């Protein structure tokens, strides 16, 4: 190991950057964006207000919010070339792989792509926030043999997403639950995907490249993919009466269950508590209450046996499913919320940049002489 260096596996506890975006108090289970508690933002603010907050540091007043909303709506269309590309992709391609490619293609069509100034980065952040949502829904429609649903200019960001996905206008309760979900996923300090975007940005690369990297990072089951894994676990259990047997077997075989535990939160993930209430209401209204009941019972059994607390992805699974979101779109939906935080971190990194370049602890062979192939 190089002199003056220290091995810290997974960089646990290492502070890599200063940020004014996210205040994560893991010891006390609290989370705030730019000083505003996550519970208040999820209950009282819209996703548009939260995105503005992350880009500008303050909640908007009426005029600025109207201008920001208009800009988001104006940016919803995606290039025809991207839709044609969706039609050429294998129908069974992972939607997250498609989303990563889509972000790169969007960068090819963005006039500000290589401009890393703050003004250009804010413009790109607005465009990406809108365009990623449209791309996710358009690809889903195309892979199912349907034409994309054009975005509606009279709907909020959350309502428009659900409309583009299903072709139907969702009710107020469903829109509010989805809007709050996007807010809860919008930003979360130096998680793996956000750190990835900041590493890429630190090389003085551009926003689209950084976000494409973030999409790749959040794809994994130890990050954003956990929600999909939770729902597949609930499918495996099947019925509420099967939870006890499943739990006993999972505990006996030391099976790893996604959606439990967190690297940072020690007093519980505050987002999970908010999502639990929304999942209960959404599952009740959609007639799919058994998924919520199964989740609660599984939570109780695993928590009592192993002392594990659900994280944000645990209750987002039955919530998203009750809203009619296909399981393999759970992670893209999370990315559609996290784009607000990713792009805000790109802006912040560019404004006070230092190349992120950690060291590695070499444990391979000691230095040795090269031998010609005849003498090896």
Task: Tell me what you see in this structure.
The protein is mostly helical and 376 residues long. It folds into two domains: 195 residues, Citrate Synthase, domain 1; 97 residues, Orthogonal Bundle (Cytochrome p450-Terp, domain 2), CATH 1.10.230.10. The protein contains 16 helices and three strands. Strands 1-2-3 form a three-stranded antiparallel beta sheet. Strand 2 and strand 3 form a beta hairpin. Helix 3 packs across helix 6 and helix 9 packs parallel to helix 16. The protein is globular, with a radius of gyration of 22 Å. The mean pLDDT is 94.
SSE inventory with pairings:
Layout: E1 22-25, E2 30-33, E3 36-37, H1 38-44, H2 47-56, H3 62-74, H4 80-88, H5 95-108, H6 118-143, H7 157-166, H8 172-185, H9 192-202, H10 207-218, H11 226-237, H12 243-252, H13 270-286, H14 289-306, H15 312-322, H16 330-351
Antiparallel strand pairs: 1-2, 2-3
Distance between the termini: 29 Å
The chain-level structural class is mainly alpha
Uncertain segments are: none
Biggest sheet architecture: 3 strands, antiparallel
- Determine and state the CATH class of the largest domain: Mainly Alpha
Sequence of secondary-structure elements: EEEHHHHHHHHHHHHHHHH
Strand fraction band?
under 5%
The strands making up the biggest β-sheet line up spatially as: 1-2-3
Q: What is the number of strand segments?
A: 3
Query: Can you say what the CATH homologous superfamily of the largest domain is?
Result: Citrate Synthase, domain 1
Mean pLDDT: 94
């Amino acid at each position: 190991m190089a002199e003056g260096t220290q091995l810290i596996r997974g960089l646990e506890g290492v502070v890599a950057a200063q940020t004014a975006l996210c205040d994560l108090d893991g010891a006390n289970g609290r989370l705030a964006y730019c000083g505003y508690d996550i519970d208040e933002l999820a209950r009282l603010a819209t996703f548009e207000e939260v995105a503005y907050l992350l880009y500008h540091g303050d909640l908007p007043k009426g005029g600025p919010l109207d201008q920001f909303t208009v800009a988001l709506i104006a940016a919803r269309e995606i290039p025809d070339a991207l839709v044609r590309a969706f039609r050429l992709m294998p129908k069974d391609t992972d939607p997250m792989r498609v989303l990563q490619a889509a972000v790169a293609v969007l960068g090819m069509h963005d006039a500000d792509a290589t401009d890393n100034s703050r003004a250009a980065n804010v413009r790109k952040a607005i465009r990406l926030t809108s365009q990623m949502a449209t791309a996710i829904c358009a690809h889903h429609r195309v892979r199912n043999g349907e034409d994309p649903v054009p975005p509606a200019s009279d709907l909020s960001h959350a309502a428009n997403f659900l409309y583009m996905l299903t072709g139907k206008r969702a009710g107020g309760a469903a829109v509010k639950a989805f809007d709050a979900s996007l807010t809860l996923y919008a930003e979360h300090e130096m998680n793996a995907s956000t750190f990835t975007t900041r590493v890429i940005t630190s090389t003085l690369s551009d926003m689209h490249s950084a976000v494409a990297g973030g999409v790749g990072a959040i794809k994994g089951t130890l990050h954003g993919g956990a929600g999909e894994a939770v729902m597949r676990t609930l499918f495996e259990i099947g019925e509420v009466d099967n939870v006890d047997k499943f739990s006993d077997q999972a505990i006996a075989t030391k099976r790893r269950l996604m959606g439990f535990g967190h690297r940072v939160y020690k007093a519980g993930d505050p987002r999970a508590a908010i999502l639990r209430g929304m999942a209960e209401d959404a599952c009740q209204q959609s007639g799919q209450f058994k998924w919520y009941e199964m989740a609660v019972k599984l939570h109780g059994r695993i928590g009592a046996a192993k002392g594990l607390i659900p994280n944000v992805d645990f209750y987002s699974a039955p919530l998203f499913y009750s809203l009619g979101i296909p399981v393999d779109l759970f992670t893209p939906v999370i990315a559609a919320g996290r784009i607000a935080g990713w792009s805000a971190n790109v802006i912040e990194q560019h404004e006070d940049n230092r190349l992120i370049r950690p060291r590695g602890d070499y444990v391979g062979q000691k230095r040795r002489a090269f031998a010609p192939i005849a003498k090896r």
